[in-house]
Amino acid sequence: MEGSFSYMSPDVGYVHDVSCFWVIRTEEGKVLRMTFTFFQLESANNCPHEFLQIHDGDSSAAFQLGRFCGSSPPDELLSSDNALYFHFYSEHLRNERGFTIRWETQSPECGGTLTGTYGSIKSPGYPGKYPPGRDCVWRVITSPDLLITFTFGTLSLEHHDDCSKDYLEIRDGPLHQDPLLGKLCTTLSAPPLQTTGPFARVHFHSDSQINDQGFHITYLTSPSDLHCGGNYTDPEGLLSADLSGPFMHNRQCIYTIKQPLGEKIQVNFTHMELESQSGCSLNYIEVTSAT
Ligand SMILES: [Ca+2]
């Protein structure tokens, strides 16, 4: 769904006390993206006499995205839910003033797989407020010799002491049971977080009420300082990790062995010496089949 609407001053000089309201509503679960194709209103600080005011919902009670006048509106605005409310007011609308607004329905950005060596992740509807009742999961899958560092450009989540309401959770691996790097539910800035291996899982959760602006985080990758991990496609070969010298702390070495479809892979341990503890909780080798 898409469309546009306009208000232009009539061609008769001045009109007084114009007040108009519009609501755009689209399907449940979708968001609206709007752009200003034409915008020419009186230019004044705080727009006291003439303005277009936009709310992130279906009434003036919803969060105000902005009050605009002059001739340089923002490039685009996104709703965080499926409705936008517009209020246009002018005390004395002059000739050749008005606006045209174009809108389209979009699916909110929520989850996905990122494989680049750098990238960014935004909460659904960002820079508008995130919608309630969402769970978005992003997986960052980079190459075996890289580590991932997340930095927080914007972090603005409903604050709660034990993060039981809204939260952003980053795990040191691709799975929900992988170790937690950080769980955030604050509007305070947070220091960067670095993985110990080439994969990460980012999970955003919002509960049913009280939302905030959300987050915009970026990630960069850097080479692992140790030779560990790699991709193997030869029909046979040897994997080894040299743990001599300064002992390797907090590292995941991911080795992937890939063979043509239908081939089976046999793994033999020719030498293994790892610290022993019950349940292999501290140091371990794990072999999984990724068919
Ligand atoms: Ca909430």
UniProtKB/TrEMBL annotation:
UniProtKB keywords: Disulfide bond, Glycoprotein, Repeat, Signal
CUB domain mapped to chain residues: 1-106, 110-222, 228-291
Sections of the chain in a coiled coil: none
Residues of the signal peptide: none
InterPro entries named in the record: CUB_dom, Serine_Protease_S1-Domain, Sperma_CUB_dom_sf
Pfam families in the cross-refs: CUB (PF00431)
PANTHER family the UniProt entry points to: CUBILIN (PTHR24254:SF6), PROTHROMBIN (PTHR24254)
Protein name: Cubilin
Gene name of this polypeptide: Cubilin
